[in-house]
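Researcher: We plan to redesign the surface later, but first we want a full-length starting point. C-alpha cells attached.
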C-alpha cells in the first residue's frame, strides 16, 4: 500500500510496482489508508509529511493494533535529518528512504524488506507447549499429531495465538478472517471458537472469552 498525498508520485510508484509484479493499493492520506482493508497488505510505503494525520501518527496507530502491527513499513519522506530517521525507526520502520529518490532504489528496498519479512514468517512456528501452528503448511498439531482444521478455524486460532494476551473483538476477528463480501455475525465467531476448543483439548482453557469485549489466547 502506497500512502502519499503527491498524486503524481503515487502514479509513478504504482506503475513501476505493477511492472515489477506487485499489486499496489494507493491511499492519498493517512485517513484514507485507515479506511482501506489491511488484510493481505504485505508492506506500506508511507510518506511522513501529509495534511491531517502524519505518516508517523499512522505508523503509531498501526503498530499499536495487533492486527496490523506486523506489516513492514518503509518511510518515503523529505524529512531526512538524523532525528527524523531515528524517530521513524523507533516506530518500527523497516527502512527509510529520503526524497528525492530513484524508483529503482525504492523497488530494491521493497524487495529486500519483503524478502526479510517472508523469511521470518516461513521460519516461525506458533506454539504453546504441545500446541503448534505451522503457518507455511497451514496445519495444526497437538503433541506431534496433526489435527484437522478448516481454513476459518486455522486463521482464527493463528490470529489469537499471534496476539496472545490481547483481547480481540468479534468485529476485529470477523474483519480479519472472513472475506469482506460475506455477511456474518458475531455469533459465527462464537460457533467457530467452540469448534476450536473441542479440537485443541487441554489447551481449550487458554482460549478465553471476555464478556462484552471478545476473545484472547492466554
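Model: Full-length starting sequence:
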Amino acid at each position: 500500500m502506497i500512502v502519499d498525498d503527491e498524486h503524481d508520485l503515487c502514479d509513478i510508484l504504482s506503475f513501476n510496482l505493477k511492472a515489477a509484479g506487485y499489486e499496489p493499493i494507493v491511499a492519498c492520506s493517512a485517513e484514507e489508508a485507515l479506511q482501506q482493508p489491511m488484510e493481505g497488505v504485505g508492506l506500506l510505503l508511507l510518506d511522513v509529511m501529509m495534511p491531517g494525520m502524519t505518516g508517523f501518527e499512522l505508523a503509531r496507530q498501526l503498530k499499536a493494533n495487533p492486527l496490523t502491527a506486523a506489516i513492514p513499513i518503509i518511510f518515503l519522506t523529505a524529512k531526512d535529518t538524523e532525528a527524523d530517521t531515528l524517530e521513524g525507526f523507533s516506530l518500527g520502520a523497516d527502512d527509510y528512504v529520503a526524497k528525492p529518490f530513484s524508483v529503482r532504489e525504492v523497488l530494491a528496498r521493497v524487495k529486500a524488506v519483503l524478502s526479510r519479512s517472508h523469511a521470518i514468517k516461513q521460519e516461525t512456528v506458533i506454539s504453546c507447549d504441545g500446541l503448534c501452528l505451522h503457518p507455511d503448511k497451514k496445519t495444526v498439531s497437538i503433541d506431534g499429531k496433526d489435527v484437522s482444521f478448516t481454513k476459518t478455524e486455522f486463521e482464527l486460532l493463528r490470529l489469537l495465538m499471534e496476539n496472545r494476551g490481547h483481547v480481540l473483538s468479534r468485529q476485529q476477528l470477523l474483519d480479519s478472517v472472513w472475506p469482506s463480501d460475506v455477511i456474518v455475525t458475531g455469533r459465527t465467531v462464537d460457533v467457530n471458537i467452540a469448534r476450536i476448543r473441542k479440537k485443541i483439548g487441554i489447551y481449550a482453557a487458554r482460549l478465553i472469552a471476555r464478556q462484552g469485549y471478545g476473545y484472547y489466547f492466554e
